[in-house]
Design brief:
About 35% of the residues lie in helices and about 15% in strands. The chain is of the alpha/beta class. Strands 1, 2, 3, 4, 5, 6, 7, 8, 9 and 10 form a ten-stranded mixed β-sheet that branches. Strand 3, helix 2 and strand 4 form a beta-alpha-beta unit.
């Protein structure tokens, strides 16, 4: 049985603060604080769905003045659906608990959704690279340059939708590649990635953590490809031809491209093993859930260890 607390009283929201933010959180006590602090200047609805938590996620979120919904079921998809049932405003913003997104960034996303024909929007990624191993840096040097990674909504930890876009996502169903499924629900003409909105993401610190995350992604992507009900997946551009073009343009990318290819191969092999093993619990990356740097997306210039996806 879900347990909820009443939403704290707030002044009437302005048009740009009139939407709802849903934050699914499974044992995110160590990282959710910076996100809720960064959202503190936004007056719309904010609901944290603490799903299957065994730590202080719910208590921390509650102490920071946001509405909390608790459920014993550790499922992100069910948490998103539950959060949807406890909010009523649009635009709707789905935000992972382990990223940092500021109130101004939410407003920018809201503004993008006001453009005719645009039903989904996402922020530009900022990667917090402090403490990240050399092989992980090499992988992201290539990954962030891939065409699909630069232009699609997946892998940002944030997706914003208007009411029309929400109808594409409203019937949440279990999918490990949930952000890819959501992103592929929109054509390129219907989505925007905004440089004016920025989300701070902490990548895995060690190569073993990166590989764990990539195996999980490969497992989820493969399941999505096999599902006839799923939206058609557009490629990321991670073909041998695209990698060769990247290296021709930037010869210094040859070693990182080798790391990328090896990682992609190991991830595919690992995904096959997961299908046999039948469990993905061990694939959660805990290294990226260490406390986030005290840098919010609005203060990037002061952080030397942040890298944009460009």
């Amino acid at each position: 049985m879900a347990r909820t607390e009443p939403l704290p009283a707030r002044p009437p929201a302005s048009p740009v603060d009139a939407g709802s933010i849903v934050i699914p959180a499974h044992n995110e006590e160590r990282v959710i604080g910076p996100l809720l602090t960064a959202l503190g200047g936004w007056d719309g609805e904010v609901v944290v769905v603490a799903n299957g938590c065994t730590d202080g996620t719910a208590d921390l979120a509650r102490s920071m003045g946001v509405r909390v919904v608790e459920t014993p079921v550790p499922s992100k998809i069910r948490a998103l659906a539950l959060g949807d049932s406890h909010v009523s405003r649009f635009p709707r913003f789905y935000v992972d608990a382990d990223v940092v997104l500021g109130a101004d960034d939410v407003r920018a996303l809201s503004g993008a959704l006001a453009e005719p024909g645009v039903h989904a929007a996402g922020p530009e990624r900022l990667l917090a690279m402090d403490g990240v191993g050399r092989a992980v840096r090499a992988y992201y040097d290539v990954w962030t340059r891939l065409p699909g990674v630069r232009t699609e909504l997946y892998g940002r930890g944030v997706i914003a939708v208007d009411e029309t876009g929400h109808r594409r996502l409203a019937h949440w169903r279990e999918a490990m590649a949930d952000d890819l499924a959501a992103a592929m629900s929109f054509t390129p003409a219907e989505l925007r990635v905004l440089a004016e909105a920025q989300v701070l993401i902490r990548p895995p610190r060690r190569y073993t953590d990166l590989l764990r995350r990539r195996i999980r992604a490969a497992t989820g992507n493969a399941a999505l490809h096999r599902d006839p009900r799923a939206p058609r997946v557009r490629g990321s551009g991670a073909s041998l031809g695209e990698l060769a073009r990247l290296v021709r343009r930037e010869p210094a990318l040859l070693p990182p491209a080798a790391v990328f290819l090896v990682t992609a191969l190991l991830a595919r092999l690992g995904a096959r093993w997961v299908r046999v093993r039948g469990s993905t619990t061990w694939l959660r990356d805990e290294s990226s859930r260490l406390p986030t740097p005290r840098t919010t997306p609005g203060a990037v210039s002061a952080a030397p260890h942040l890298a944009s996806e460009q």
